[in-house]
Amino acid sequence: MSELISKNVIMMDLEVNNKDEVMCTLARSIEKDERLNGYNGFLKAVYDREATFPTSIGYGFAIPHGKSDYVKKSTIAFARLKNEICWSEDEMVRYVFMIAVPEKEAGDTHLKVLSQLSRSIMREEFRLSLKEAKTVDEIMRVLTF
Predict the structure, then answer these.
(1) Which of 145, 2, 4 is nearest to 73 (CA)?
(2) What are phi and psi of 140, to 5 degrees?
(3) How far from the centroid of its chain's Cα atoms is residue 14's Cα?
(4) Rounded to whole angstroms, what are the CA distances from 51 to 15, 107, 117, 140, 145?
(5) Average pLDDT for 110-135
(6) Which end of the chain, N or C, is more open, meaning fewer C-beta atoms within 10 Å of its C-beta?
(7) Burial, 129: exposed, middle or buried (Cβ in 10 Å; 0-12, 13-18, 19+)?
(8) What is the mean pLDDT of the chain?
(9) Is position 110 annotated as part of the catalytic site?
(10) pLDDT higher for 144 or 69?
(11) Does position 145 have pLDDT exceeding 70, yes or no?
(12) Per-residue pLDDT tens for 58-91?
């Protein structure tokens, strides 16, 4: 999974007020890392997916994701938020992984990454490591399992 993550798409203690702000910020970071060829098109895919079924998964985590031809390279972006935000009706979130996958890799890569992240989030050690990390390098070490 390490090839999907770059220091440029990891944010620590991000100050946002709502889900829209964090999704736009993460998508913009993926674009700046030259992994998208269309910010708006990718973000639309993420919002379309989110409208179908909210992506909060418990433990204070959400995994918004989009499969799109606007994605050049499969990517996982991550934000640890300074404060929790309301993600869906009753779900508060502080940790957000955004997955970007090219349409042509949608089946295999997308499902593999979601599965791996979900299993990791279930482990208390993983969650605690993300909470206590002091630097982007520490977060990179946790995420490149």
Answers:
(1) 4
(2) -55, -45
(3) 13
(4) 24, 20, 21, 30, 30
(5) 92
(6) C
(7) middle
(8) 93
(9) no
(10) 69
(11) no
(12) 999 999 999 999 999 999 999 999 999 999 888 9
Q: Does residue 138 carry a pLDDT above 80?
A: yes
- Where do the domains of the chain lie, and which CATH numbers do they carry? 2-134 (3.40.930.10)
pTM > 0.85: yes
**How far is it, in rounded angstroms, from Cα 87 to Cα 2?**
27
Catalytic residue among 16, 22, 43, 65: 65
Which residue bears the tokens 């799109």? 68
Contacts of 70 (CB under 8 A, 6+ apart): 36, 37, 38, 39, 41, 42, 45
**pLDDT tier at 1, thresholds 50, 70, 90:** low
Give the number of other CB atoms < 10 A from CB of residue 57.
18
Could you tell me the two tokens for 70?
A: 């606007």
Cβ-count burial 92-113 (b if 16+ within 10 Å, e if not): ebbbbbbbbbbeeeeeebbeeb
